[in-house]
Structures are given as structure tokens and as C-alpha cells.
């Protein structure tokens, strides 16, 4: 392997902190990306996602903690010795160079034998479906094509680790979904490459990632498979950031399996949580049904939005607005009508106040 490439190595953040001018912007990140795994770093703007990525690439130095690629501690290594491919939002192609020279750039910088370069360039362009565009200049390509070339350039060095920083956010919606499918295909063709994918877009994270690391305020808040985070979020932040959620303030009742919501008893799984504890109940809008049923709640219809495949109803109940996404709505109730909604006990997740993602857990 050239340039310290690390085929199938995985990434390990070990208590990594980064500060800018005394401000901690990444706080003791503990996370492991397995060889061949796609890990999305998902979180709002400013939560430290790009900083984590740049720390892996070697563009920022942690104030404490170690970064490992496989069994190599790369914390002090310069970027070009890490064997990493990186793609950023703005493509960053060299405008005066043809596509093939852009893709060859990293290989030349890493002193790959001259005779080997054309073959490596062709291989990388083939991977992203851009073989026919080798002699074009970036200005002769669409945004999506430029991003493919940027990905080819990152792949040409045959990296063990691919870092993608909001790679689709400069593309329009239609191109974005095409590129998402492309990235999924690329991942299938490169099963040994670990991918760390920074995004604030939950659809990208849910679609592409094997696991999602949820970031907020410089810290890892949660980590799990998309299904785990969606079905069993551990924190309110995860519940609201990964998918849509009704979050109801409740108090756990003395008896197991019951909570109090504004004076009304609801039957939900309470697990080990003790009576008297205040908590948040998370129910996904598509799991709320219209009409009578278990955990029926009656209120006033405040708003109806038609969303193509579903109707979103907003119902005011005990001073809280509850969202219900309904596929079939034979008769739309009128605004101001009394309506009853319900949800099954097993579709509710209880989030005790202050519940968080325990420290020291390696992703
Ligand atoms: P995200 O990728 O989640 O949007 P970033 O990792 O880019 O977040 O930024 C985290 C925090 O660090 C933000 O508050 C940002 O303003 C700050 N920050 C990022 N880069 C720098 C820098 N070069 N100098 C000073 N502050 C920075």
C-alpha cells in the first residue's frame, strides 16, 4: 500500500477532545468505526462533526486523546501519511486541470510509480461512472459529476478510510437522491473501506449508515443502528433529531406499566423506572391512530396538512399538540372538531429525564 494506506483498518476515537482558542468544540469523543462500516456523524450545525472528521484526517490536532486507524496510532501523523481519502462539500477540484489530472493528483503527491498512475486513475473513474469524462475540465461538468470526480480522486489512493463531509449538500434534491444510491453502491463495491460520513440530514444518515453517531454540543449523544435509534431512542435529542416524534411530559405511576400524562393514565412499558420519576414519552406520529383504542386521548383538531402519501393531523390535548400521520383518512374531520387518537403501549418509548448516552461506551 502506498502512503500508509490502511485497508480495512477501522477508526478509533479514544477520548478525543479538540479546542479552538480555549473553547472545547469536541469533548472526549469515544467512538469506533469498524472496518468496512459506514458511520454517519449526525447532528445540528456547530455540534463538532466536521471537527471530528478533520481530527481523523490530521487537519486539526486534539488537545487530548488518541486517534487510531487499525492498530496504528496516527494522532501525531501528518495528513498525507494517514492513508485517508477525503471529500468535502465544495468538491475542491483544481479548475485548470483535466479530470484525469485531478484524480492523479493524490497519487503523484504520494509518489506512486508513474507507470502505475494511468491505471489507478482509470480504476477510480470507473468506480464512480466517470470514465468517459477523463479529458474534461471541471467547468465542463455538472455539480453531481464534479462531486463524482472528487470521490474518484479520494479513492485513487486506495484508502482504508474514506471521510465524507456533507458531500451532497451542494447538490439539488433530485441529484442528491441519485448520489445517495451511488454512494450505497460504492460502499458495496468497496466492502473493506471504513466510511465516516458527516451530515446534518437524517435521511442521508438513515439511508446510508450502518450506524449513526448522534452529536450535539460537542458531545456524542447516542450511537446505534438507524433502526435502534429510530425505534428505541435513548434520549429526547435523538428522538427528535432522528425522525419525527411526539414528546409528552409524563410522570411514572407507582404501578409498573403506567404513566400519568396531564392527569390521564397511559399504559406504556416503564421498565425499571421508579414511580414518581418525571420522564418524556416518545411516540412516533405514524404510530398514532385515529379513533378509539388503547391509550386513547381526546382533544381538538388544530390543523391538517396533506403530505401526498399521508395526512398529518395536529390535535391539541391537555395543552400539548400531538402529531398523527395517517395514510388513510376517509373523512377529514373539521378544524375545531373533537377527535380521539390512540397508540399501542409497545409503540411508546419512555425516556427518563436526564437519561443520556453513558460515557466510556465505544460506539
Ligand atoms: P459541525 O460540523 O457539527 O457543523 P464544526 O465541527 O464545524 O461543527 O464546529 C464546531 C464548533 O467549532 C463550532 O462552534 C465552530 O464555530 C467552531 N469552529 C470550527 N472550526 C473552527 C476554527 N477553525 N476556529 C475556531 N472555531 C472553529
TrEMBL record:
Give the keywords, sorted.
ATP-binding, Nucleotide-binding, Transport
Q: Where is the ABC transporter domain?
A: 11-242
The cross-references to PROSITE patterns, in alphabetical order and at most eight, read: ABC_TRANSPORTER_1 (PS00211), ABC_TRANSPORTER_2 (PS50893)
What InterPro entries does its record include? Answer: AAA+_ATPase, ABC_SmlMolc_Importer, ABC_transporter-like_ATP-bd, ABC_transporter-like_CS, Mo/tungstate-bd_C_term_dom, P-loop_NTPase, Transp-assoc_OB_typ2
Q: Which GO molecular function entries does the Swiss-Prot or TrEMBL record give?
A: ATP binding
Q: Does the keyword Transcription regulation apply?
A: no
SMART domains found in the cross-reference section: AAA
Write down the superkingdom of origin: Bacteria
PANTHER family in the record, alphabetically? SPERMIDINE/PUTRESCINE IMPORT ATP-BINDING PROTEIN POTA, SPERMIDINE_PUTRESCINE IMPORT ATP-BINDING PROTEIN POTA
What name appears for this protein in its UniProt entry?
Answer: ABC transporter ATP-binding protein
Amino acid at each position: 500500500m502506498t502512503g500508509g494506506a490502511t485497508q480495512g483498518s477501522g477508526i478509533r476515537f479514544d477520548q478525543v477532545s479538540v479546542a479552538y482558542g480555549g473553547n472545547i468544540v469536541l469533548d472526549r469523543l469515544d467512538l469506533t468505526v469498524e472496518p468496512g462500516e459506514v458511520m454517519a456523524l449526525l447532528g445540528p450545525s456547530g455540534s463538532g462533526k466536521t471537527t471530528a472528521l478533520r481530527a481523523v484526517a490530521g487537519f486539526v490536532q486534539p488537545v487530548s486523546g488518541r486517534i487510531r486507524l487499525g492498530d496504528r496510532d496516527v494522532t501525531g501523523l501528518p495528513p498525507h501519511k494517514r492513508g485517508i481519502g477525503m471529500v468535502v462539500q465544495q468538491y475542491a477540484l483544481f479548475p485548470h486541470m483535466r479530470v484525469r489530472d485531478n484524480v492523479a493528483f493524490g497519487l503523484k503527491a504520494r509518489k506512486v510509480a508513474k507507470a502505475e498512475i494511468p491505471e489507478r486513475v482509470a480504476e477510480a473513474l470507473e468506480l464512480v461512472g466517470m470514465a468517459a469524462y477523463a479529458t474534461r475540465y471541471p467547468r465542463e461538468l455538472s455539480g453531481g459529476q464534479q462531486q463524482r470526480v472528487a470521490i474518484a480522486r479520494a479513492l485513487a489512493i486506495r484508502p482504508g478510510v474514506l471521510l465524507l463531509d456533507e458531500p451532497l449538500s451542494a447538490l439539488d434534491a433530485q441529484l442528491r437522491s441519485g448520489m445517495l444510491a451511488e454512494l450505497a453502491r460504492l460502499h458495496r463495491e468497496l466492502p473493506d473501506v471504513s466510511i465516516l460520513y458527516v451530515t446534518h440530514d437524517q435521511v442521508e444518515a438513515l439511508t446510508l449508515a450502518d450506524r449513526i453517531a448522534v452529536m450535539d454540543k460537542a458531545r456524542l449523544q447516542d450511537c446505534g443502528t438507524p433502526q435502534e435509534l429510530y425505534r428505541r431512542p435513548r434520549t429526547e435529542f435523538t428522538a427528535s433529531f432522528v425522525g419525527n416524534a411526539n414528546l409528552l411530559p409524563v410522570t411514572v405511576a407507582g404501578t409498573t406499566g403506567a404513566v400519568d400524562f396531564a392527569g390521564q393514565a397511559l399504559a406504556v412499558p416503564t421498565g425499571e423506572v421508579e414511580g414518581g420519576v418525571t420522564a418524556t414519552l416518545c411516540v412516533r406520529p405514524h404510530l398514532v391512530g385515529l379513533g378509539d383504542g388503547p391509550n386513547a386521548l381526546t382533544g381538538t383538531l388544530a390543523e391538517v396538512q396533506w403530505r401526498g402519501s399521508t395526512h398529518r393531523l395536529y390535535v391539541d390535548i391537555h395543552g400539548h399538540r400531538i402529531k398523527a400521520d395517517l395514510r388513510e383518512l376517509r373523512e377529514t374531520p373539521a378544524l375545531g372538531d373533537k377527535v380521539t387518537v390512540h397508540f399501542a403501549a409497545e409503540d411508546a418509548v419512555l425516556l427518563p429525564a436526564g437519561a443520556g448516552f453513558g460515557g466510556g461506551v465505544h460506539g
